[in-house]
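Aim 2, interim progress. The first record below pairs a target sequence with its structure tokens.
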Amino acid sequence: VHRSAVAFFSAVFQAYSHTKSSIIMAAFLNKKFKLVSSEKFDEYMQELKIGFVMRKLGNSATPVVELTCEGDEYTFTTTTMLKTTTIKFKLGEEFEEERGDGAKVKSTITMDGNKMTHVMKGDPESTIVREFDGDDLKAVLTVNDVVCTRIYKAE
């Protein structure tokens, strides 16, 4: 009897955790967030060895980002006046993408509540932690010892 009770409560807890995570995620899916502030983005791009002209373009852009989901596949779209980039991924599964500096990297994105962690394995490795909070999105970009913080607001 004891083992079946443990198994039952374990299953209930897992279902609750998944449902709670889905509810949290639903609050920021299909919302467009526009960049309102950025600290140390030029330093971040320099650390990625992005050239002067591309850094100037990157610093002048005001991207709008959107996360959507269909089934278990997510799409993260970044739109600027210059271009639109889209990545498609499944949580916890490695995929290949082209980083902002043009480098091909192996990436993995995970979700913990309202925090989405995007690890890009390349030279150098970089990480973006996006924290969704209602109409706010805070992105912390890290490469080596450089940390950039970008704040977005829902449109």
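The second target in this work package is listed in the same format:
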Amino acid sequence: QTFTLKVRTDDDLDDGDRVTLRVEFEDEEDTENTNIEDDRSSNDEDVRITITDSPDPAEPGDEVTYRINIENMDDRAITIDATAFLDDNMLFLTGSNDADLDGDEVQWDDLRIEGDATRTLTLTTRASYSLDDGDTIRLRVEAGDDEDTETTEIE
């Protein structure tokens, strides 16, 4: 007799992990190993980014907080990196989820987002004191296959 077994792997498995199936029947035993391969790089992840800022408009020297929403449009969990590119007239103050500042970029590594779910990051900056009424500052964020930009008016 032939039996067919269909197995769905756990979403927590990563590229390179191994799944082992062991079957015993009477005095017989067989083991089958399967290596997990994920051929989708983080740049292929189907995500949508939206950014909001507060306050807007802001004044020179104000703290401006950005809420960055990364929505996983896929039905499976993903792990993704995100990068925020700071305007020359912004000073990084804080970032949620272990944000890491590298020059004018803020990096979030290995963010896990469940299927059909949204992960919210926060980033707080200070608008330069040298800005004038009518100037703007911009924050651009990239993750997966999407990017978004938020412009904050200075008054």
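The mean pLDDT is 88. This observation will shape the mutagenesis plan for the next reporting period.
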